[in-house]
Amino acid sequence: MKGLPHTTEISRQLPKAAIYRKFDVAPAQQAHFDADVSKMMFANIISANTLPAIKEGKTVQGIFVLDIQLKRRDYDPKNITMLSRLIPQKMVFVLQYGGHAQMAIYHDKLHCGEWMNADEIGLPLEGLTLDEVWDNIVKSIGNIIVEGERTLSEQIAEDDRQRKILCQIEALERKARAERQPRRKMELFNMIQNLKTQI
Questions:
Q1: Does residue 139 register a pLDDT over 90?
Q2: Residue 62 φ then ψ, to 5°
Q3: For residues 50 and 125, what is the distance between their CA atoms, to the nearest angstrom?
Q4: Nearest in space to 83 (alpha carbons), one of 132, 121, 141, 42
């Protein structure tokens, strides 16, 4: 699974209790996390030591792959976001449930890939430095296409902005369809047209 070289394997358990103690996680958050997560293990580390062909980056010195066994497939993404914020490392999460797996990664926000058979999960290692490898993993999992001269973070922000505008347009279109007054219908139409110019 994941298609990573054996040199990257570390197989180190990450007990939930240790995280709760170290980061002083509130009991309510612990219960919420326990409802989703069964167990966790650091499966791999991608670094200049484990993959000598890839150089250390300016901001990324290592990327951990964390296998997470879930208790349910419809987990709360906030639990994975919390984990990524508590542990100050670059991490790729491989979330597993019932023979299926989904990859997730936190970069500005949580990005989740598609669910697939666990043995089909593959992690791309593209780039000469760990900075490049990290960016390419984020793009792959988040299905992000960086346009023009934008940075990855700029593209994520732009994609989010456009997503919000599209949601606003959908909401206004629903209102316009239900509106009976011609004047108000025209106002809504003009608002929709104005938003479309911002996409």
A1: yes
A2: -165, 150
A3: 13
A4: 42
Residue 75 has which token pair?
A: 């987990």
**What are the tokens at 160?**
């989010």
> Nearest-CA neighbor of 86 among 130, 134, 20, 139?
20
Distance, CA of 40 to chain centre? 17
Overall average pLDDT of the 48-68 stretch? 96
Task: pLDDT band for 124, please (50, 70, 90 cuts).
Answer: confident
DSSP states along 97-111: ETTEEEEEEEESEEE
Please count the helices (runs of H) and the strands (runs of E) in the chain. Answer: 6, 7
**pLDDT for 3:** 82
Number of neighbouring beta carbons within 10 Å of residue 59: 10
Question: What number is the average pLDDT over the span 87-92?
Answer: 95
Phi, psi of 119 (to 5 degrees): -80, -5
pLDDT in the model for residue 1 = 61
